[in-house]
Amino acid sequence: MSSSPDVHFISGLPRSGSTLLSALLSQNPALVTSGRTSPVAPMILRVSSLMAEGEYACDFDAIRRDRVLRQILDSYYAPDADRRIIIDTHRDWCARLGLIDTIFPKARVICCVRDPIWIMDSLERLIVRDPILSSHLVPIGRRATQHDRLDHLLSPDGVFGYAWRVLIEAFHGPFANRLILIDYDYLARYPKAVLSALTRELGLPAHDYDLDHVESLDHGAFDQTLATPGLHRLRPKVEFEARRCILPPSVQERLAGGMFWRTPQAAENGVRILA
Prior knowledge:
Elements: E1 6-12, H1 18-25, E2 31-37, H2 40-52, H3 62-76, E3 85-89, H4 97-103, E4 109-113, H5 116-128, H6 146-154, H7 159-172, E5 179-183, H8 184-189, H9 191-202, H10 220-225, H11 249-255, H12 265-269, E6 272-274
Parallel strand pairs: 1-3, 1-4, 2-3, 4-5, 5-6
């Protein structure tokens, strides 16, 4: 029987390059990536909740628990069993580093990050692209004004607010040395350097990545479910795009200085930073 493939994860902040990074890594024939947010993390968390409490808790010792949880990921990626490395994407992985440490002891978590000002700018551009503001990224009652939309996105229940909180917890937590943080600007400007660093850090097989022909994986159905067309669309060439920020100055001031990973504490925590 062949050994199980190595497993790593992509997490971090929205609109920060996780889809781009996943698309680039998928060019390597030794890797299989989820391409976008996969259902593996929610499946594992729901099954683990059955093991933690209720009538079935006594049926699972640590060995059986870990085997069942690991097999959820193995079964999901079974059609790609010939690949040597699996890289799964979900924001929740940052909140479950202790679980990763137990059932995937060799795994690293790649966290894509970006200046919060430009994350919110990107989210706002996506939402207002639709003239009737139908994106499910924001509840219908919070879509009327830009300030309403931004307040929700920044809230604990918002797509940015939740990811921001769990990333900060992971950065300062006991498993911070598992993290590899990649700043979006650095990825867009120096993709070869990022891919070379990941090849070393994760022990990936060498590959000549094509940075001028990046294929967008088919996420149309997922984006349509969120009523946010283009959420995972990629430009065919990796390059940095300069643009005008559409956020009001007051919002920019509110978010300024949020790149906490650009501090000496990253090294103290054992976090690897590519920025």
